[in-house]
Amino acid sequence: MSMGLTVNIRKVLPGFTLETAFSSEDKILGLLGGSGSGKSMTLKCIAGLLRPDEGHIELDGRVLFDSVSGIDLPPQQRKTGYLFQHYALFPNMTVERNILCGMDRRSDRETVRELLERFHLSGMGGRYPHELSGGQQQRAALARILASQPQAILLDEPFSALDAYLREEMQLTVAQMLQSYPGIAVIVSHDRDEIYRLCDSIAVYDNGRVVRMGSRGQVFDQPQTRAAAILTGCRNVVAAHACGPDTVQVDGWGTALHTVGPTDVSVRAIGVRAHYLRPVDRAGENTLDCRVDSVVESPFEMIVYLHPLQGTEHVCWKVDKATFAKYKACTRILLHVPQDAVLLLRDEGR
């Protein structure tokens, strides 16, 4: 089944305006952004839980909302399955009854049995939500959604209420479910790892707008905007400007950096992912002479914060423990910035 989703809407609230536009034909679309950026609001507009002030929403050729034509389908007619952050199971109903509610007037207990088995809930159909673990509640909510046979599944921060171990387990369960699901899925998250693992394409949100849209590879390899670079995990984002056809001046680091891509006057900042930096023995092109400020140990790597001797803004370097062992006694370190690691960012950003 070929699916597509088009959203072009505007919604004004006190102190915040959602003005978002994107179109995707990919199977799994991720909306990545910080808290309050408008991604969950977008999901509610798609589901019909919130009415935009103006605009157009279309799913698989069906118009769900159009302010000009006066179309605003109620949620039950939109054929979308919405998974709330805390699952919203009916507390006074058993798991089986919750799933049956998703079937409208159809009472297909064989389908219920199949869904219970599919989501590893066999033998739990008679339990109530409070008798289930967080992961079991989520699986029950997903089973209820699939029972309604939606054209689109909308997942709002689906793993935020789970602990780290259960989160990874449920990500695998959801990934397997979505691979066999024939429709489109939209996943809202502020977690870049979740979005990267699960989604084919990504819309990056900042302050109510989509600031970057593309495939997973495009968005992570070429974030293009300051907000997208930060949200995809870039720890070094510094103001910069073009000073040559392939060179940028980075005043915060007190140096010029050569790049692979052509530069122009639209460049406002550069990004360098912390794990791309490399220690070197001699100063040269694209090297930073840094003083070590602090070191943070994580389970599998070291995070080193440094201060460039010629600059004012810190540098974050992520390095494996074996490599760092050679430098742990050093108070100064020379770091090389590979040309292909310099991300050119063309918006003013935050």
Tell me about this structure.
The chain is of the alpha+beta class and 350 residues long. 23% of the residues lie in helices and 34% in strands. The chain contains nine helices and 22 strands. A six-stranded mixed sheet has the order 7-8-9-3-10-11, sandwiched between helices. A hairpin with a 2-residue loop joins strand 4 and strand 5. Helix 2 runs parallel beside helix 4 and helix 3 packs across helix 4. The protein starts with a strand and ends in a 5-residue tail after the last strand. The model has no long low-confidence stretch (mean pLDDT 92).
Name its key features.
six-stranded mixed beta sheet; 350 residues; five-stranded antiparallel beta sheet; 22 strands; single chain; alpha+beta
> Which bin fits the share of residues in helices?
10-25%
Sheet bearing the most strands, described? 6 strands, mixed
pLDDT < 50 runs, ≥5 residues: none
Q: Give the N-to-C terminal Cα separation.
A: 41 Å
Rg over alpha carbons: 24 Å
- Overall mean pLDDT score? 92
Number of helices in the DSSP assignment: 9
Question: Beta-sheet strand percentage?
Answer: 25-35%
User: Outline, from the CA principal axes?
Assistant: globular
